[in-house]
Write a structure and sequence with these properties.
44% helix, mainly alpha
Length: 71
């Protein structure tokens, strides 16, 4: 039995995942005020959730207007 083929994530799917991850931990508990007020910590939480949600995000070559870094 093989795994289903990978498909591109729709922007709506990523938005929903990031929106959920910004509010709740992977265990479903709401984030506390300290994490919500810490942008770096929140970014870490979102990345962790995306990894747990089996999202694959690819990085293309940098464009002229962009240095290649996300932030």
């Amino acid at each position: 039995m093989s795994a289903p083929p990978l498909t591109s994530a729709r922007p709506e799917d990523l938005r929903e995942t990031v929106f959920y991850a910004s509010r709740f931990s992977p265990t479903g508990k709401p984030h506390g005020t300290r994490l919500r007020d810490d942008p770096e910590g929140m970014a870490d939480a979102v990345v962790t959730y995306l990894q747990l949600a089996t999202s694959l995000i690819f990085q293309g070559p940098p464009t002229r207007q962009h240095s290649g870094r996300i932030c």
